[in-house]
Design brief:
The protein is of the alpha/beta class. It is 44% helix and 17% strand. α5 packs antiparallel against α6, α6 packs across α9 (256-266) and α7 (208-218) crosses α8 (227-243). The two termini are 38 Å apart.
Length: 273
């Protein structure tokens, strides 16, 4: 398989440039991309060191020059990286130049006070959302359900916790989750403790065959992981969702990123971050 070295460079965390770069590279199949992220390249010294490493890679593999995605507020850092012998792409310039023309003003090329304030607000929202979600994971506590943006419900091991955490971390959503256990699945009535929050409920379901695999890894050879029990639980949970008008998604073949994005859209949740 064809191999290409890819570098993501940023004067900050690198999360943005990674996301943009990987979205672009995902369009090209049959290539093995060996990736490296260089975060906080925020000085001339660090930019030179990064350029030297990339240049060494380019010389070691002359048949395929490295690919570099970068985001820098300081254009002088970009000039240094562009001398590395790699294919370099400025992930911000694509947007900044047409915006500057449209808005009729030059960009600041610096992190200003308003941006710092927004980062501080976003950070606090993310921490608050994560704390809320962890404190309301798996039905541990229900005393602040009124504050939830959403309450995910489903049978055990249907992906409630990772989806809740993703919603909190990436969108600042206060996401609680509640497991439907045996006593909740004796009929299709909504558990009494959830009735006051029916407008916040969102269901997750999963194929019984996949559920038994997941449970089998956690508790091998247990009744908990048997296929007939998984079928029974999933079937009752689905009927509960339908009879109580609870929207739901099937997690079987979806990543946590896809699930969170679809729930955010379908439930019309506020996106805080």
């Amino acid at each position: 398989m064809l191999t290409h070295y890819v570098y993501y460079l940023s004067d900050s965390t690198g999360i943005t440039v990674e996301s943009l770069g990987r979205s672009v590279l995902a369009q090209f199949s049959g290539i093995n991309f060996l990736e490296k992220t260089m975060s906080f390249v925020d000085s001339k010294k660090r930019a030179i060191a990064a350029a030297e490493e990339i240049s060494a890679s380019a010389k070691a593999h002359p048949e395929r020059r490295p690919i570099v995605f970068y985001t820098f507020a300081d254009e002088s850092f970009a000039s240094i990286i562009e001398q590395s012998g790699a294919l370099t792409m400025d992930c911000l310039d694509t947007f900044i130049r047409p915006l500057a023309k449209e808005l009729g003003r030059e960009p600041s090329h610096a992190t200003g006070t308003r941006l710092d304030e927004k980062r501080a607000r976003d950070y606090q929202r993310r921490i608050d959302a994560l704390n809320y979600t962890m404190n309301h994971d798996d039905g541990i506590s229900m005393h602040r359900y009124a504050e939830a943006d959403i309450i995910l419900i489903g049978v055990s091991r249907s992906g409630k916790t990772p989806t809740s955490l993703y919603l909190a971390l990436h969108y600042g959503v206060f996401a609680a989750n509640y497991p439907l256990v045996d006593e909740d699945l004796t009929n299709t009535r909504l558990p009494e403790k959830l009735t006051a929050y029916s407008d916040k409920l969102y269901g997750l379901t999963i194929a019984p065959q996949r559920l038994t695999q997941i449970r089998g890894e956690r508790r091998p050879n247990s009744r908990y992981a048997e296929l007939d029990k998984c079928r029974q639980e999933v079937g009752t949970a689905l009927r509960l969702f339908d009879e109580n008008n609870i929207r739901y998604l099937d997690v079987t073949r979806q990543s946590v990123e896809e699930l969170a994005s679809k729930i955010l859209y379908d439930a019309k949740l506020p996106r805080y971050l």
